[in-house]
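Format notes (please read before filing issues)

Several people have asked whether sequences and structure tokens are stored in separate files. They are not. Every record keeps both together, in the order shown below: the sequence lines, then the token lines. Line labels are part of the format and must not be stripped during preprocessing.
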Amino acid sequence: MGATLFLARRLALSSGGKKSSPAVRVAIAAVALSLIVMMWAIAIVTGFKDEISRKVTGFNSHIVLTPEQQDQADAATPYLTLTPTLSSILSDIPYITDASLQASIPAIFKTQGDFKGIYLKSLTGTCLQDFIASSIEEGHMPDYAIDSCRNEVVISRKAADQLGLKPGSRIDTYFMTDAVRVRPLIVAGIFNSHFDSFDDSFAYASLPLIQEMGNLSASQGTSLAITVSDFRNIDEYSSDLQHALLSAYSEQQIYRLYRVTSATRSGAAYFQWLSLLDMNVAVVLALMTVVACVTLVSGMLILMVDKIRFIALMSALGATRRQISRIFMLMAARIAIYGMLIGDVVGLSLLFIQRHTHFLPLDPDSYYIDFVPVEISIPAILLLNAAVLAVIWIVLIIPSRFAGRAAPARTLATE
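Then the structure lines:
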């Protein structure tokens, strides 16, 4: 192994030792390009999944708890009451990191020239607050802990354009409850999530304002937004929470049943769409691996033809076919490693640039995002490099068998 490694390292990948042959350069470029494409495919799909999941959970939270209506008594009290017992049950569950009361109420925004029906939703819950704050295009997020901000509202870009509103605009709001109530509100901020179905339906205000307009007490709302510690286990957590609430109901700790809805269920259409992307990534990885392997095999065969005198000379000196094959496998591995290093440097550089500048745009009407999202995962990139190198090494075993079959006497006699 020492002699073959030494020869493989000292043997030039060129004719005359001055410049690499076109086949070697093409092989290096193919490996680099293939690795860049594979790296970007993984980064884009991972980023796309994270971004869409963030939007879906931003609007719906990880888990939403709503009251179950089974009879007329439940229908008479359609609101959720955050009782001390319910609060204690939720606080005792280790994977729940936040449980915030939410309330929503139908309303109509009225300006001098137009009006729009909307659901006014309380801006509570960790997921919703973080998401709306990251989607603000104009204005600011109101601080509802301050009384002076109580009548401020955050509306979508679509609603603002339709009604001709901007930050600081006053808007008359009609709350549709048992009796129509009117309250002038101030537009504090304008957000744009690119989710038209949500942007067209919701605006956000303070929880006390909605509770007041809906005749609710401070402990009442329409739902409970729950954030869990690990989104990947959300289905398991949802099932466990539903079981815990059923047990509490059967033991008469709580007085009514609750429905537990996870984000993967409420946004099932989006997550099913995202799951289809995995097949696309698998196809890209397979095709790029084939391209890299084919070009490397071609380059290796051309390199063997170019080094035919070296093969004959080594055979004449007593080198075995296995030793000669190993020399050319190590030479081909050098080509692959050169290409992988170039691919890693270029691919990661472009990923970092895209992550910070978003120079590659997307059509938000089709993809719900106005830029190509990327997620850089160093463990995934290292695993990709290791897998590509392993596949290339296995594929190179076949052409390496042809090395060492040159007849020394005939080859050297022709020189």
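For reference, the curators noted about this record: DSSP finds 17 helices and 13 strands in the chain. The radius of gyration is 32 Å.
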